[in-house]
Specification:
With 121 residues, this protein is mainly beta. It contains 2 helices and 10 strands; from the N terminus they run βαββββββββαβ. The chain has one domain: Head decoration protein D (Virus Head Decoration Protein, Chain: A). 13% of the residues lie in helices and 35% in strands. A hairpin with a 6-residue loop joins strand 4 and strand 5.
Length: 121
Amino acid sequence: MATKTEGVHSAEFLLSDEETQSRDKVILITGQNLAAGTVLGKITASGKYTQHNNAAADGSEVAAAILFDSVDATTIDMPCVIVSRLAEVADAKLIFKAGISAPNRAAALVALATNHITART
């Protein structure tokens, strides 16, 4: 029998949160297909969210939230749910942009902590 590998589940990264206070509905900008647990930044000019990119200069260089469920925004902006405050998350389950350095990853976790999102090992 063939082995089936499951993908990332909704909120798999979440250890605890204040459901009614921790989550927001926002817009994920076009051009991305992201899994639950992806660390996001907020684009200042539009208020839309995108994958955190420490090398950007549009606001998304600051980690602001975590994607609650997988979202395919490949061809159109998509509504989504994010964890934006008051939560504990599993550090190992967070998804960062490929190639992020250890210091930039640590800085992103500090930025999330300012929103009371605590990464646990």
